[in-house]
TrEMBL record:
Pfam assignment, any one: HNH_5
Region forming the signal peptide: none
Name of this protein: HNH nuclease domain-containing protein
Domain HNH nuclease: 75-128
Highest taxon of the lineage: Bacteria
Amino acid sequence: MYHYFSNNSVLVLNTSYEAINICDVRRAIVLVLGGVATPEEYTNRIYRSPSTTVKVPAVIRLNRYIKISYKLITFSRKNIFLRDNYTCHYCRDQFKPKELTIDHVLPKSKGGWNSWDNVVSACIPCNKKKGNKTPEEAQMFLLKKPKTPNLPIYLQIIRNIGNHNKEWRKYLFFDY
């Protein structure tokens, strides 16, 4: 399974306990030691330097509130793959970004547009098999109907990673 971030990632919470970012362990330790953040959960790992030993945080909370502005999500190849969780909508397997293509559900030659509601991630073999046909004509079935993401992309990433990180789960909402 492809994961956008490694196990060396730390969930960053706002003072309101809202997940706002992911950073690496080193950055998290700098924020904690600098008094900018407070650890909320720890991993079972230890970070050692010549002068100090620190428990590695899994979740940190900022000590000052950061205002986040939520904008419309840019329509892009990267964001389509993130929306689709790097999964081919036809064979349902996960891939690395370089192994995926963008498929127009209704082909451009038949009046389809570049829009959230008309494009899906597809692996190269499935996209070649479908060709210039609709899924029905190609007798291929979509994993789900494509739609505009309703969460900022970074929150989708955080939720996806959170599924595999037990220390993060209680800080993430999975009812979207």
